[in-house]
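tl;dr need the bound structure. longer version: we got a ligand (3-methyl-2-oxobutanoic acid) that a collaborator sent over and nobodys looked at where it sits. i said id run it. heres the input, straight from their email, havent touched it
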Amino acid sequence: MSSAKKEYKRVTTKSLVDMKSQGEKISMLTAYDYTMAKIVDGAGIDVILVGDSASNVMAGHETTLPITLDQMIYHASSVIKAIDRSLVVVDLPFGTYQSDPKEALRSAIRIMKESGAHAVKLEGGKEIKESIKRILNAGIPVMGHLGLTPQSIYKFGTYTVRAKEEKEAEQLKQDAKLLERIGCFAIVLEKIPASLAREVAESVSIPIIGIGAGKYVDGQVLVLHDMLGMTHEFNPRFLRRYLNLYEEMTDAITQYVEDVKNVDFPTDEEQY
Ligand code: KIV
């Protein structure tokens, strides 16, 4: 790790590759709206992911499958207005890139044109290779996503750790190499053994950003609402909660209700 950390006025896909080669870890969080994105960007995050986890966190769906392209564009365009420094990556939602490469390109173009985002993320390896190549050929940067890919939850059946078996681990390693070779600028690895994530990170020159993939990767990503403790039913081992906002917000709102009922709010000083 170099001692002098380079300052990036604006983070680009190239900055991330430079960070990896200089041993600087990459920080990434999700955001789905203007107010949160303003705080996250201002705090110095490198990458903001407008994740399709918005389907769970914002819309209350059980999985990421129902969120639409229009909804992702709405979230992304709110986020992009708040940004001074971070690189903004947007998930292509389920059903907008798997069926054919032309549709994948059309979906990616809509995100880039209508939201102003800087890059897109797609889940999968060799099975979506042609879609990724088509998007890259149009000049749109692509981040890959391997391991636990939540859009395939009905194939997996559970959200448990992926690639513990040799066969799946081997496929994942090959997919990571493939994504690097065709031109992806980074890869998210979700919920896989730390030793496998390390092997992948050491075998490619593009950054590997982990979520539940241990510490031997090039950066970390978490869902913002989880790490702030706004959600409280989701408790995987990899999640570190930096605040307990669920409790703090509940306390504040309970107090407000009480104050209104008791006519303690507003006071003389709080009226005109
Ligand atoms: O949608 C999302 O939030 C994600 C992260 C879990 C990486 O894809």
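gonna send this back to them w/ a short note. The pocket of 3-methyl-2-oxobutanoic acid is lined by residues 30, 49, 51-53, 91, 188, 190, 211, 221, 223 (CB under 6 Å).
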